[in-house]
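Record 1 of the preview.
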Amino acid sequence: MSGLEAQYLPARDILGIAQGVLAARIAWCSGDLPEAEAHLREAVTQQDGIGYMEPPYWYYPVRQSLGAVLLAQGRADEAVAEFEAALAEVPRNGWALWGLAQAQAAAEDTRASETQAAFERVWLGNIDLLRVDRL
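->
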């Protein structure tokens, strides 16, 4: 790993993000959403600490997964904030737009239909793939 880091690749951070996301998925599947949230918050902190790079070192904004866990816990307003932060990192991210629309609808936010329309403009995939637990 030190060889990768000597070439300015933040290998430990990337592996830390992967470990956090994996641990969060396992916790969610076990029904422990607070534990999933804790792992994702740690992964978000690690991702936020990595410098800017194109393409990014980690392939998606982990905040969208944190938003999904918050939404699954019924904390829609907090989920909205995380999805918006994910979209600030990766604008026009279909997964984050879909999650934001779901969170806004749950929060009775009047912007939900506008966000849904933005999602429909960018999403080219199978809509049947979209579920909160896949974010």
